[in-house]
Amino acid sequence: MIAENLAKINENINNAAKTSGRTRDDITLVAVTKSVGIDECNTLLCEGQNVFGENRVQSLCDKYETLKDSALWHLIGHLQTNKVKYIMDKVSLIHSVDSVHLAEEINRQAAKLDMTKDILLQVNVSGEESKFGMEENALFPTLEAISAMNSVKVRGLMTIPPVSFEAGANRKYFAKLYELFMKLKDNSSGNISADFLSMGMSDDYEDAIKEGANIVRVGRALYI
Ligand SMILES: *Cc1c(COP(=O)(O)O)cnc(C)c1O
Questions:
Q1: What pTM did the predictor assign?
Q2: 2-223 adopts what CATH topology?
């Protein structure tokens, strides 16, 4: 089942990418593994899918214990400052940085380990309906503060739109984040760059790609 679903998703990604002159290789699929166990992860690995996303620190650490660096791990969910230290040596990208305070802690822990950590800034482009992510108008002040940090690198932006039951309802939010991403591109320098735009989940990853995403985070559609 997983193999078939993955093949279909890869095909959909390729088709959506083509509408904007891109191909499958331009898009990173993060297989969200929060609802499955090691067996499913191993199946994904066998099928060549080796980027995994977990939304909780504990479950990421548990899976990492077994699978180690056979996968690239992305932390995609809300991250508490006091848990940063547990994931520093495990994750290749943190999608969910939503405050200067959190960036400071990642910077501090990265410096301790003599590494640089790649992060995305999570922006709430849908207003009140979503509780995580920084306000749009906090983005540039946050970047300003992070530009003085030596051990974190902003690589782009991420958003989680509100749950929607209407096809296409989130495209306006994806378009809005893409606009911010382009502004970020214009303002890139030092440790700030706009390489990755992480948006789109099981129900709307194709829309997100059409609106410019180059990272999509897909869970349910892999397993049903
Ligand atoms: C669970 C989760 C996803 C995947 O959602 P699905 O609807 O299962 O595809 C993507 N991003 C984040 C931040 C998540 O927590």
A1: 0.97
A2: TIM Barrel (3.20.20)
